[in-house]
Amino acid sequence: MDTEVNPEHPASGASVPKRPAPRLPGREPELGRLTGLFPVVLGGAAASAVVAGEFGMGKSATLRTAAALAADAGFTVAMATGSRLESHLAGGLVRQLADALDEPGASPRPPAAELCGSAGESEALDLFFRIVRDATERGPLFLGIDNIHLADAWSMRCLAYLRNRVLDLPVLIVLTSVIGYPPHREVALLDMVGSTPVTITLNGLGDAAAAEILGLAPGDLASACREATGGNPVLLQALRPRLLPGADPHELGSSLIGQVLTTRVQEFPHAPAILHAAAILGEDAGFDLLARLAGVDELDALQAIDTLVRLHVLNNSDQPTLTYSFVRNSLLKDMPQTTRAVNHSRAAKLLTEAGAPPDRVAAHLLEATSIRIPWAVDVLRLSARDAVFSGRPELAARHLRRALEERLTSGRRMAVLLQLAHAEFQFDPPGAAKRVREAVDTVGNREKAAYIATAMLLSLCGGQDARLGISAAGQIAARLDAGGPDAVWPLLCMTYLAEAGSRLGPPPEFRDFEEQWAPLTDPAAQRSRSALLALDAVRSGESAQDAVGHFADALSQAGASDTREPNGDDGELFEQHYFFTLATAVLADEPAHVDRLCRVLDVEREPWDVHVPHGALPTLARGIALQTSGDLQRASVHFESLLRRFDERGGTTTCPVGVLCAARLVECWVDLGRFEAATSLLDRMDFVASQGLFTHTYLLYARGRLRVATGYTRFGFEDLLSCGRRLAHHGMRFPGFVPWRAHAARAALALGQTDDAARLAEEDINASARWGAARPLGTALTTLGLVREDDEAERALQKAITTLRTSPSRLQLATALTELGTLQSRHGQSEKAIETLRQAVELSEQCGARPLARRAAEELRSSRRALTPAKDNEHGLTRQENRIAVMAAQGLTNREIATALHLTRRTVELHLSGAYRKLGIPGRAELGGALAKSSQRVDGR
Fold first, then answer.
1. Angle of CA points 540, 545, 547, to nearest 5°
2. Which of 827, 895, 905 lies closest to 866, judged by CA?
3. Given CA atoms 382, 388, 391, 392 in this order, what sign does their dihedral have?
4. 558-562, 760-764, 856-860, 898-902: lowest mean pLDDT where?
5. What is the Cα–Cα distance from 304 to 291, expressed in whole angstroms?
6. Per the database record, which ranges form the HTH luxR-type domain (predicted)?
7. Please, what is the end-to-end C-alpha distance for the chain in angstroms?
């Protein structure tokens, strides 16, 4: 680009006048290497250099500046410039140099025919040598040949002939050449400059030099300009007048640069077609796509790509894209708009056939604005969905506006408008409201409209955009209401669920619109009604049997159809975040129903919510069931593998299903004793942004459990209480969702707040008895056993164990066994305690619950030691019996002994009764004497 773009090129063949050398920003090192050759030549020896670089990198300017510096140093300067239009004229460069070396007043130079070899090759070569030799007699000589790659063959031969004959003459030969330009078939570059020339490669300018050329202060803008142009000086100069305030350098281009570059590669077969295809494809450029879009045979395309890579026009990589964004934009600007649009539509089609991601296809569809592409609508919608959930709603809106340019049915137009409203709501809420009204006005087919609105609700994660979805669904429901309940019930059902899950307070009452379902006889409608009745039963916490029965009805034949047509798959109810969260909490205690639920959720199609990976819901449901049954290791594998997939989609902290998965994993890790991993995962979660979202309540519960387990009891206690308040605020009375009261009661006992612990235990037992399921009831009875004393505590724990044996909840059973064994040990029932704790250890180890297993094993060892008779008495008193008997003989009351040893009075009484029996005494009065005699007999052995 040096010659054509820069009109200040000196006239060919003219000597450079002695004037101050122009300053070249950023080229000081290269000029220093050239001027470093001056002393060698001034000493009487020849030297040579090659300045190479890509188009526009400043080779000509560097040569001119070096020539001016040479003139200042006393050199005679002769310059010649190769030109594409003169490359067929023999001796063109030689004549330019000869004219420049012509001394004023000298005899006329030989005719051009003699210098160009027409009269004889050897004579012409020798004639050129004599001209140069005679010039050196007047002083050192600087021969500068610009664009040697465009020189004619005869001139190249003359330079090669000259180079070996001026070794002992003060001649400096400097050539410039484009990198990668195919060499002349007769003369190589090294033939003209010798085998060891100084080679200077001009690379892109740095930020400071680029800023100077652009007239900018160093900073981010100058850096962006340098990146867009690769620091190429000609491109920077072309960019400068286009750099208006607010412009993005990566989006700018010059049609003149595009035209120049296209002209430059015309001499290479198929290179222009490949160049334009690369400009259209951009980052999607690949060998096969380039060849197909350019319409070039693969072998011809490969040769053209090879040439363009060597010229540094294309990157040398698996994807031969254009080197700089400014070059690509310039080529696109040089194309007529229709040509560009058609080529982008062709590129979109090729990428679709190649299985490219939707966002890459959509990028080309955006540019094909004047071309009608009916199949593009689905691609644009899918790409827009991904853009919204990756935090780029403006891009999503562009895709959807492009989709609206296609000819759409009323139903498809409504679907696109609703999706566009969702995207625009992120940055223009009033505009989004207008889109919703526009969508309502396009309603045609009632069934289709209800289906589209339902799909919209299923695709939303929650938060403010869910409120928009609920509002839109309400408007559409009102529009469809005249068609009767058959037309609107699926939409009402999903709207109810979406509103229940997004409200900050209690959800709406199902009974408020239940009468609308009375006339419906459609089996799908009845199953949906059963699902909502199940949810109502769960929220009320009144009957596990009713809830499970309704869920079973909803699961019957649900999801049998794998379509997305209206009313085709009412199993989607179970995919809704709020519904899924509560359904899995209830059905986890029902293994047969868990299997049915997983079958319903395990469909081939992708979930509506882009954050939810395919197959995530059945995996999560299975993991919850495994966790509930106490299979912690397998449950954690399910949760961890799923969490990695949520991380890949950016949904772990934002999508309700991702949050639920993370919370379940934290709870699982707490039971496994993996506290560091649980802490690390919780540190990633955003508790501030989670306020008001129902699934985040489980996250708060999991953090409370972790804090209690790791010694931060006060903070954990507050988390658990906060969890309970949020559940009450949501109107959730189902005690099996999170057993927060059980863990809060334990924390209260650890903090010495026995009244709070007793209150929480009583509330838990009442809620669990009302619900009636074995797991919550067994858990509540275990808690009751911790806050009660003596016989009441033991009866509660025995009942808890009996209840939990009827459920699949092995971890809760292991916990109850541990608490009962501990209580039995304290009461002196060591034989019973050993058997109970042995079962607890075995069961907790099967679950993988290491903290519980360690505690049960420690209590077991303590119980076994308690059965070992003390060595200092002959009556077989256990260590605990002996200790309590000695304290009683010293005059301490039962209450004082119980306080000192942290036992109940009942336990003290049991141990004393055992001591009386073994010592053969009737009561406390004889205790001192009996112990003294026993001690004397032991000492006298």
1. 50
2. 827
3. positive
4. 558-562
5. 10
6. 870-935
7. 114
**Residues 6 or more apart whose Cβ sits within 8 Å of residue 143:** 78, 80, 97, 132, 171, 172, 173, 174
Half-sphere exposure of 154 (CA within 13 A, CB side): 23
Of 354, 376, 372, the C-alpha closest to 363 is: 376
DSSP 517: G
Q: Which amino acid is present at 262?
A: T
Instruction: Tell me whether residue 125 is exposed, middle or buried, using C-beta atoms within 10 angstroms of its C-beta: 0 to 12, 13 to 18, 19 or more.
Output: buried
Superfamily of domain 25-202 in CATH is P-loop containing nucleotide triphosphate hydrolases (3.40.50.300)
CATH architecture designation of domain 877-934: Orthogonal Bundle (1.10)
646-705 per-position pLDDT tens digit: 888 777 887 888 899 999 999 999 999 999 999 999 999 877 655 445 678 889 999 999
Q: What is the dihedral of CA 276, 282, 286, 290, to 10 degrees?
A: -20
Q: Of the candidates 753, 725, 726, 720, which has an alpha carbon nearest to the alpha carbon of residue 739?
A: 720
Q: Amino acid letter at 355?
A: G
Q: Minimal CA–CA distance to 381: which of 451, 455, 444, 431?
A: 455
Q: Output the six-digit token pair for 765.
A: 């037992």
Tell whether pTM > 0.85: no
Cα–Cα nearest to 470, from 448, 446, 444, 503: 503
Rounded to the nearest 5°, which phi and psi values hold at 173?
-105, 125
Nearest CA among 660, 571, 677 for reference residue 624: 660
Q: Which two tokens stand for residue 709?
A: 């387990």
Helix axes 376-389 and 393-403, enclosed angle (nearest 10): 170
Angle between helices 830-847 and 850-867 (to 10 degrees): 160
Q: Which helix (H) or strand (E) holds 540?
A: helix 523-540
**CA–CA separation, 641 vs 623, rounded Å?**
11
Task: With a cut of 80, say whether residue 604 has pLDDT above it.
Answer: no
Kindly report, residue by residue over 312-339, the tens digit of the pLDDT.
Answer: 999 999 889 999 999 999 999 999 999 9
